[in-house]
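Workshop exercise sheet. Pairs work together: one partner reads the sequence aloud, the other fills in the structure field after running the prediction. Swap roles for the next sheet.
Pair: D.N. / O.F.
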Amino acid sequence: MSAVRTLATISLAPVLVAQAVRVRRSTPRLPGAVGPVRGLVRGSGAPLRLAVVGESTVDGVGAGSHEEALTGQLARVLAGSGRAVAWQAVGRTGANARVARDELVPLVRPADVVVVALGVNDTIELHSAARYRRDLLGVVVALRRRLGAIPIVLAGVPPMGSFPALPVPLRNVLAKRSGALDAAAAELAALPAVEYAPMLSDLLDPTAFADDRFHPGPAGYRRWAEHLGEVTVRVLEVTGWAVRG
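Structure field:
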């Protein structure tokens, strides 16, 4: 960040703090998804074992159940070709990448592929790109130590400039920070069997959000799952896992 940009951010600090407090007070507190955090989408062959690890989007905030949240919808997308999919959602609202590494990865059961969805809390906490890259790499390493050399999909950090709940200038500051963390995540795709799945802009129109205008609703989760499903199938095929029934 340039000196001019740093000074501009410092000068806006009182406004940003006030806006953050106001957003926190005015934004509806939606709960995580209810019901089982594991399930099976029936199909042919031995089930593909899918684990999704991450923050509130993996906790299913904005959806009524995990079946209509990110993990359940992704499982249905992957089962679309006929292959059975056994899924598990390992999410925690408020988790950053370091918390995911230390507290969520140990909860993951054996899996054939893992999707990691993080970055919003690291953005809100104003973590640097270097720290996020280091902590996200720690998640990848911890998963490989626990599960073996499985393929991993890193979901891109959502561009927070598109979040309707955020006012300007807070939105602009978080948009720049989320973009920097997203670029850091993309760098990890250079690792073997690690794929990066950018958050596409058309996934973030206003109809994709839940009532809090911050988290996806079921329709938003569906769109995101379809995109992540394409990337997941690609990395599975490259690494030799048969995804078709």
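Discussion prompt: The domain at 36-239 is CATH 3.40.50.1110 (Rossmann fold). What would you look at next?
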